[in-house]
Amino acid sequence: MEEVTEEKIYPIFQELVSSELNLEQIFLDPNNPRFVSMNWTEIADDKIESDAIQEKVILKLTSDFAVDKLSMNMEVNGYLPIDRIIVREFEEGKFVVLEGNRRICAAKKLKEKYDDNNNLVDEEIVQSIQKIPCLIYTGTDSEASWIFQGLRHIMGVHEWSAFNKAKLLVNLMEEENLNLTKVGKRFGLTAYGAGQWARGYYAFRQGKEESDFQREIEERSYPYFQEVFSRSNAPIREWLEWNDSSGKFENDLNFNELLSWFYPRNEDEVDESIGSTEVLGDWKHRKIKRSDDLRTVSFLIRNANKEFEKFRNNLDLEEAYSTALQKKYEEEAKRNANPILQVYETLEECTKSLENVPYKMLKDKEEKAKLKLALEKLNEIVDELLEV
């Protein structure tokens, strides 16, 4: 029997050569494994540098892979060669990215922004993207991009927890005296996004240091505190009386009740003589199963006070929400069946809105002019109705 000899596999590091390339020498990969779908068509090497192909890749990376956030981060911190990109030469002096397409795309967008108006990007930031540290792949494996991206993204960098990200963000704010806009840019976040992370951390810290649940609160509950500061959860923040100046909830009673939904205590085990704090709450039996469920609580606070009170008295959240929705649909059906009632309700809502016109609207000339036109039109309708 003929002996089969296995082909020797060389360690991949032997096919990587350290180098530094000009940004203009580096082209984005139109055959990026991120793009592959059932109708994918491979782009040949002689088409890679085409302006149309490169623009298409930039558009894809920007729309689907959050390159704008990375570019915003780079605009503050410069290009950080923490991990070198990997490229291969497809034409003499021209290289296509095998790993690191998002970073190179962000750098190219930043360079384009500088070329369009050099006042928009600091000179020192642009200097950081002129020369890119690279590893040049010298092997012949046609699936090299799949290999390198697989090594990084399948086996690669371990994701930080949401708590650790928030802690780092707040530490930077406090140590470097950064506002939300500046620290947000460092992390590729909007000022609102950075605010949500930071306020969530402050709320977590308040619970950990100043509540009746100090011993229970742990890092895995942080996403719940962050969720409280989503756009949908203004009713919860109002119920808890959030103070943005102090970075704390001022209604201690309601705050501790919120924490009791995360860490309910077994009342049967409570010894009245020593107090309930001797009994630890149990995260596994939390009343709020997912952080998104806090939006349901906000709905109840705003739209269904009776059902909210029932939830507070141990009614299941889903059951309370279902009851509230059923009542809402019944009320809508009544209004639709009685158009006269609907008119009165609409007039009442209109009156409340006019009584609470924001001062900013009256101060802004353009907004004030729009309001005046709307009121004049409304006044015409009122006069016609009164004459009937």
Short description:
With 388 residues, this protein is α/β, with parallel strands linked by helices. The protein has helices at residues 51-64, 67-77, 101-116, 123-127, 144-153, 162-176, 180-186, 191-210, 222-227, 234-240, 252-262, 294-303, 305-312, 317-337, 339-355, 359-363, 365-387, and strands at residues 16-22, 26-27, 85-91, 94-99, 131-137, 242-243, 248-249. It is 53% helix and 9% strand.
Radius of gyration: 29 Å
Q: Say what oligomer this is.
A: single chain
The shape is: extended
Percentage beta strand: 5-15%
Quote the distance from N terminus to C terminus: 108 Å
Q: What is the number of beta strands?
A: 7
Q: How many domain units? A: 3
Residue windows where pLDDT falls under 50 for at least 5 positions = 4-8
Number of helical elements: 17
Largest sheet: 5 strands, mixed
Helical percentage: 40-55%
Order of helices and strands: EEHHEEHHEHHHHHHEEHHHHHHH
Overall average pLDDT: 85
Structural class: alpha/beta
